[in-house]
């Protein structure tokens, strides 16, 4: 207990120091300019009956927004300190599907920061435009350019990659998906500063992730990680639907028997950044079997408690 008390005191001192420092300067903004939206009609994406005249005001044509999450049991980079957050799923991304469930990817190669593009063409086919590999500074440095230590800390706790450094995974998600989301277009930012769209996307993805606490929703329904208990697909889907109002995509590996993904589909009122997410039914069929689904415990050395100490 004495050790915990000392650690807590250290956190308090650090927090007080941060407050003092914060009073000396303000961080640069990463907020888009949405004043033109004040005169635009208000509607949920994919539900508009007229043409959207200002794509900065509503995600278009990718108005079916997916907040996607992983349940991994290890990272493969434990020795480098890359660990999973205890009692929480992790962020996969924020995707802009078309209203029919189809999608595009890598829509702006001038904002391509993915070291290992996957797929490596814009349409995923051999005849597509090649997506060049990126070899510049990591996107974590973009976050630090804007002084967002708080955001970087959160992402390193909850946006965890398996088999690659976190920053490479974040770069992949921005380059493949955010560049296809109209509300993150460079034109939406007044006096645009390089990479503010990247930081804004990361902020937005974190906000969306926090809307869907998968671990807690499942646990409240008695569905918890276990290496012996199995669950039905209906149990998992219902546990989420009674909280969100819509059935998510439930993903499984291991020939449909190992739970590892959850995708939440939504229509958005306003922008992805600040608008209201209305959950809607998944347009993608589950990859899980109807029964015998295992929600595996994590390797003990692959996770850490992130809710108490930095």
**Would you identify the regions where 5 or more consecutive residues have pLDDT less than 50?**
none
Q: What's the count of strands? A: 9
CATH topology: Ribonuclease Rh, Chain A
Tell me the β content.
5-15%
**Average pLDDT reading:** 93
CATH architecture heading = Alpha-Beta Complex
Major β-sheet, in short? Answer: 5 strands, antiparallel
The H/E string reads: HEEEHHHHHEHEEEEE
CATH C-level class? Alpha Beta
Category by helix and strand content: alpha+beta
CATH superfamily: Ribonuclease T2-like
| Range of helix content | 25-40%
DSSP helix count? 7
Overall geometry comes to globular
**Total tally of structural domains:** 1
The CA-CA distance between the termini, in Å, is 18 Å
The whole-angstrom Rg is 20 Å
Describe what this molecule looks like in 3D.
It is built from seven helices and nine strands. It is an alpha+beta fold. It has a single domain, classed as Ribonuclease Rh, Chain A, CATH 3.90.730. The strands form three sheets. Strands 1, 3, 5, 6 and 7 form a five-stranded antiparallel beta sheet that branches. Strands 2-9 form a two-stranded parallel ribbon. Strands 4-8 form a two-stranded antiparallel sheet. Helix 6 packs across helix 7. The longest helix has 21 residues.
List the helices and strands and how they pair.
Blueprint: H1 2-22, E1 64-70, E2 84-85, E3 90-97, H2 139-145, H3 149-158, H4 166-177, H5 196-211, H6 214-220, E4 230-231, H7 233-244, E5 249-253, E6 258-269, E7 276-280, E8 293-294, E9 303-304
Parallel strand pairs: 2-9
Antiparallel strand pairs: 1-3, 1-6, 4-8, 5-6, 6-7
GO cellular component, one term: extracellular region
EC number: 4.6.1.19
Family: Belongs to the RNase T2 family.
